[in-house]
Input
Amino acid sequence: RQIVWLKPKMALALLDAKLSLFTLDSDILFFQVPDLAKIVELNPDVELFYQWERVDYKQVYTIPNYNEDYEENIVHDGFNSGQVLWLPTENVIKGILFALLDGKIGAGAGDGFEQTYSAVGMKKAGVKSAGLSFKYAGNWACKTKSECLVKTNSQNWISYHATWVIGGGRKMQVLKMANEGWLSLTTKPANIVDKAVVEDDSNLAKC
Output
């Protein structure tokens, strides 16, 4: 558990230098490069963005004209520190200090996780925080409800975090499943590509 405390400690050092940063866990697969500037631009009053711990993706995709970034009236809650965008504000720095102090006391007794202390610390400091887009996805619904929508709806997703499983081998299995699901939705079958090439060659021949 101690290694996870490197994230807030590193964040503290860089935020003190007036730098923003995006921290992430090692068990995350990125489908595309995050547009961090856009996140801040769309939410100018927010000081910290975090990954949702639980999102019911099946509910999202049953809504007519759904918004893949956020839907208020579906199950979504919890602070997951696997993907966090930290902005260099005094409140965020105070929040990290609260988390480190409380964590030193609690973790010494084997109590709690870093992300729990970080969430509480940010609240203590009055940080204006918000969840990232639902497209920064986690594995909760797949693991607990067997609803693995990364296989059917992830073509626009940004990342997939192998949460709710323990052990490197199991996490790799989850990320492999996510990668195969995303590729199946975003890669054209070879026969379609070949057909397009043939049609283009035919049109050129006519010219």
